[in-house]
């Protein structure tokens, strides 16, 4: 089955700096890669996703890149703000409708 | 659109009792729903895949007789934790796929979660 590795587990940056979180996956059949932000005690919130037919997607300060050959994808947050502080999860699944398999999460702390 | 609700949002029960958690898709039909469990400071771990009208598929290590799943309609799946023990205390989250609009993209919509505390 699919296995998703996520690094780093914690990340501390200064406000305005960029943050990068990286994930690798094992199943070459996976073709959907979402990123979630989760605040304590709440549901995961989808912030951006990418499908295997594109290599990069951007939404304002957030971007995701995908390298299918290497089986890794990354989340890039620019101009970080204190409200970006949260736990971020990457996930992977395939089009056949299987469940999302999550990475272990990254706790991002943005200090002002 | 694409709203998923869960009930209850939190529950406290005594050891040995059973607890039922409901997951509903409010404005779309979901042939497939997923149940996840999240312990403090950990990731979401898939417990089972719930298919409307058929038996659930459980992940390795998840006891099907302890975590009973019923998906009797296209908008409702239930998870019953039977004979709950303190180690079952966790945050249980369901998710659902939109059968019609977004199935091809596999986007999933999460419920708000249920905090279970077993005393």
Structure description:
With 112 residues, chain A is mainly beta. Helices cover 0% and strands 54% of the residues of chain A. In chain A, strands 2, 4, 5, 9, 10 and 11 form a six-stranded mixed β-sheet that branches. A five-stranded antiparallel β-sheet of chain A has the order 1-3-8-7-6, with no helix packed on it. The radius of gyration of chain A is 13 Å and the shape is globular. The model of chain A has no long low-confidence stretch (mean pLDDT 94). In chain B, strands 2, 4, 5, 6, 9, 10 and 11 form a seven-stranded mixed β-sheet that branches. In chain B, strands 1-3-8-7 form a four-stranded antiparallel β-sheet, with no helix packed on it. Chain B is globular, with a radius of gyration of 14 Å. The mean pLDDT of chain B is 91. Chain A binds chain B through residues 32, 34, 41-44, 46, 49, 51, 89, 93-95, 97-105, and chain B through 32, 34, 42-46, 49, 91, 93, 95, 97, 103-108, 110-113, 115.
Radius of gyration of chain A: 13 Å
Mean pLDDT of chain B: 91
Main sheet makeup of chain B: 7 strands, mixed
Shape assignment of chain B: globular
Question: What separation lies between the terminal Cα atoms of chain B?
Answer: 37 Å
Shape of chain A: globular
Please name the defining characteristics of this protein.
heterodimer, A: 112 residues, mainly beta, six-stranded mixed beta sheet, five-stranded antiparallel beta sheet, globular, B: 119 residues, seven-stranded mixed beta sheet, 0% helix
């Amino acid at each position: 089955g699919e296995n998703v590795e996520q690094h780093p587990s914690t990340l501390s940056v200064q406000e305005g700096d960029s943050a990068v979180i990286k994930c690798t996956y094992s199943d070459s059949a996976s073709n959907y890669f979402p990123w979630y932000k989760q605040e304590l005690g709440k549901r995961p919130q989808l912030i951006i996703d990418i499908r295997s037919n594109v290599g990069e997607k951007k939404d304002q300060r957030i971007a995701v890149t995908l390298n299918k050959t290497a089986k890794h994808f990354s989340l890039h947050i620019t101009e970080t703000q204190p409200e970006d502080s949260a736990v971020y999860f990457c996930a992977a699944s395939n089009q056949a409708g299987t469940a999302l398999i999550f990475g272990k999460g990254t706790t991002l702390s943005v200090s002002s | 659109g694409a709203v998923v609700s869960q009930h209850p949002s939190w529950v406290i029960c005594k050891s040995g009792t059973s607890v039922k958690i409901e997951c509903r898709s409010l404005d779309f039909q979901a042939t497939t729903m997923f149940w996840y469990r999240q312990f403090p400071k950990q990731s979401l771990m898939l417990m089972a895949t719930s298919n409307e009208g058929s038996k659930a598929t459980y992940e390795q290590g998840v006891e099907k007789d302890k975590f009973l799943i019923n998906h009797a309609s296209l908008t409702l799946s239930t998870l019953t934790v039977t004979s709950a023990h303190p180690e079952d205390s966790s945050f249980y989250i369901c998710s659902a796929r939109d059968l019609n609009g977004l199935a091809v993209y596999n986007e999933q919509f999460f419920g708000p979660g249920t905090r279970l505390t077993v005393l």
